[in-house]
Amino acid sequence: MATGPANWHRLHKGLHWLVVLLLVMVWGAVELHEFYEKSDPMREWWKMLHFSLGLTTLVVMLIRLYGRALYPGPTPMGAAWQRHLSGLVHGLLYIVILAMPLSGFAMRQLAGKSIEIFGALSVPQLVTVNMDLAKQIAFIHKEVLWTILLTLIVIHIAGALWHHFIDRDATLQRMLPGKHDDTL
């Protein structure tokens, strides 16, 4: 098995925790819009924030992928089955976190809805409106991808806690911010 650095590079750590924060904010924004009537401008403001934070998450995830190429991560710990499951879960997390904002963008475009990014930038209509396809993508975005994302997050957290409390290895500590050695 190839060896890598002892810990995750500080770029990986920072972007990991930034994505966690962004995902919580994206979820919070979409939940908060439900507290307002459809005619209330605040409802649209929360939806705009949800979409803007989702696109921000997409950009941060693309930077994470680039960072993975620049700074390899440490060798995974645990038994072979744990390393394989970890690789699968991480790969699926990347795919789903990238697919969520892309499907949200496609959904809004196909529905002919305006897209404003942080209220400062408007995205022009790039595709022909197709409400049937918009509804299908909305189902995938809101039901399928969301459920898969939540499931993967639970597995990811459970794996980190398993390593920390059961295996008692340094898997969790290597991703925590702080004084841990960044060898790159």
The number of helical runs is 5
- Label the overall shape: elongated
Uncertain parts: none
Mean of pLDDT: 94
Approximately how much beta-strand content do the residues carry? Answer: under 5%
Compressed to H and E, one letter per element, the order equals HHHEEHH
Could you tell me the number of beta strands? 2
In spatial order, strands of the major sheet run 1-2
Helix % is: 55-70%
Query: Quaternary status of these chains?
Result: single chain
Biggest sheet features: 2 strands, antiparallel
What is the radius of gyration?
A: 19 Å
Amino-to-carboxy terminus distance: 20 Å
Structural class: mainly alpha
Explain what this protein looks like in three dimensions.
With 184 residues, the protein is mainly α. 69% of the residues lie in helices and 3% in strands. The chain is built from 5 helices and 2 strands, in the order H-H-H-E-E-H-H. A two-stranded antiparallel sheet has the order 1-2. Strand 1 and strand 2 form a beta hairpin. Helix 1 runs antiparallel to helix 2, helix 2 crosses helix 3 and helix 3 packs antiparallel against helix 4. The radius of gyration is 19 Å and the shape is elongated. The two termini are 20 Å apart. The mean pLDDT is 94.
Write the layout of secondary structure elements.
Elements: H1 10-32, H2 41-70, H3 80-111, E1 115-117, E2 121-123, H4 131-167, H5 171-175
Antiparallel strand pairs: 1-2
Helix pairs in contact: 1-2, 2-3, 3-4
Tag the structure with descriptive keywords.
184 residues; two-stranded antiparallel ribbon
